[in-house]
């Protein structure tokens, strides 16, 4: 088991208090042998990192977010396999035939109830409904208090994840050509902006990499990174698929739709 200082250093890019709580939960698992869960959902930058270093932690690391390819997940620390996570799946069904539920509107309506974003997992809209993973202790509260999304009345219920069709993320594949994997170059290629204008929106905090605002123009964008560019959309960097005759990189993206 690595010491606390070393553990904090491995997640230096995250909030120190949150990382300290993770370490405390790992220690409690080691001391008691019990399954211990995080009290909130974490982005891939955290749960993937913990899974990668579990050998140094001395505990088993599991993560779960209900959906296939879930991005936000609850993490469990245990001595063995974990089968049940404290997560519920809520379905928000639109009762209006004249409006469409959007991710932004649904998320905003839930947060307006006083719930922190960290208590919610992924939210996926499909047809006239939206599905959101939530920490189970908040499920009933949302059901009883969420009566509408925007101006549209809605029905909210917990659904059985084993018998209900689970929606999946929808993507549109795109290819870009970039001179490098630096953030400013990737942003320029995605948006069609010049490098200098891409740098401007990075400096303005309009680019989020793996769920953290990124203002360093020379930060390297790795495969499987998630980029959100305000005004342009959300993208997953899939892989390099080739090199042009002039030595630039051909990169496959998936745009969330």
List keywords for this structure.
257 residues; alpha+beta; Ribosomal Protein S8, Chain: A, domain 1; Alpha-Beta Plaits; Structural Genomics Hypothetical 15.5 Kd Protein In mrcA-pckA Intergenic Region, Chain A; 3 domains; six-stranded antiparallel sheet; five-stranded antiparallel sheet; 8 helices; 28% helix; 31% strand
Please describe what this structure looks like.
The chain is built from 8 helices and 14 strands. With 257 residues, it is an alpha+beta fold. The chain has 3 domains: 4-78, 2-Layer Sandwich (Ribosomal Protein S8, Chain: A, domain 1), CATH 3.30.1370.160; 87-159, Alpha-Beta Plaits; 171-256, Structural Genomics Hypothetical 15.5 Kd Protein In mrcA-pckA Intergenic Region, Chain A (Roll). It is globular.
Largest sheet: 6 strands, antiparallel
Question: Averaging pLDDT over every residue, what do you get?
Answer: 93
- CATH topology annotation of the largest domain: Structural Genomics Hypothetical 15.5 Kd Protein In mrcA-pckA Intergenic Region, Chain A
Rg estimate, integer Å: 20 Å
User: Would you tell me the structural class of the helices and strands?
Assistant: alpha+beta
List low-pLDDT spans.
none
Per DSSP, the total helix count is 8
Return the domain count.
3
Tell me the overall shape.
globular
CATH architecture heading of the largest domain: Roll
Oligomer: single chain
Percentage of residues in strands: 25-35%
Give the distance, in angstroms, between the N- and C-terminal Cα atoms: 42 Å
Helix content: 25-40%
CATH class bucket of the largest domain:
Alpha Beta
How many strands in all? 14
Order of helices and strands: HHEHHEEEHEEHEEEHHEEEEE
Find the CATH superfamily of the largest domain. RNA-binding S4 domain
- Main-sheet strand order equals 9-14-13-12-10-11
